[in-house]
Amino acid sequence: MNNAYSSPIPVKKTHLGNALASEWTKIKSVRSTMWTLGIFIALVVGIGLLAAANTEPSDYGDVPFTIPAFFGLMLGQICLITLGVLVTSSEYGTGMIRTTFTASPQRHRVLLAKILVFLAVAFVVSAGSILLVGLATSSMNSGPEAGDVPWAGTVLKGGLYVSLLGVVALAVGSMLRHSAGAITAMLGVVLVPAILPAFLMIWDSTRTLAEKMSDYNAINSLAKIFGADGMDGASGTSQLVVLVVVTAVAVGGAFALLEKRDV
Fold first, then answer.
1. Which of 1, 45, 99, 163 has an alpha carbon 20 to 30 Å from 242's alpha carbon atom?
2. What is the pTM assigned to this prediction?
3. pLDDT, position 8
4. Burial class of residue 15 in the structure, from the number of CB atoms within 10 Å of its CB (0-12 exposed, 13-18 middle, 19+ buried)
């Protein structure tokens, strides 16, 4: 055994930090990240500034200065959903997931790293966009007629809400392993609860269900977070809590299926 080969390359035990570095390299290297986040920023900031330019200080007597960002987020959330799906499903589509799991056999570590990196990127971009719109709106419409509604909470809650929607999409992409199917499923999750209550309100037996769906769908949840629904004291906290629970369930399902299936 004296002649046994010994590699000159130091062998170190891998950990979550290595997986995070790998996923960060992936997400910043692919074109889909640039396009989806670029369009997201263009929608939120562009529509937000356009709305702010066409308002007056008196329009902000009882709403926060970040309210123009809400109009962009209604469309921009689709971009984060798409990116969330692509973070996982694109590797299955190209077959590169085999290389990923060969390099890191601990599959749960890979999925956790994907979730953490995506959540961090999505939150920074979304919260930063909302903050930029809020600052610009405040500078354009500040005055004695404008109210003093605090808006720091809308930056944090709004950014976290759309980021968690992207994490749900990431989990769905991991479970379905098909980009088009997962994006379609997530569009249904976002759009159907916003449309269906109008039909369910017709019957008394489904009226309660319609009211709950109307309160907790993605668009109205964002409206409550930004105070755009006309209800005093509504902060959207309960809607955010519900989304956290939904995200936890979706991520749990993704972890469970990841260990049971082949690549």
1. 45
2. 0.90
3. 77
4. exposed
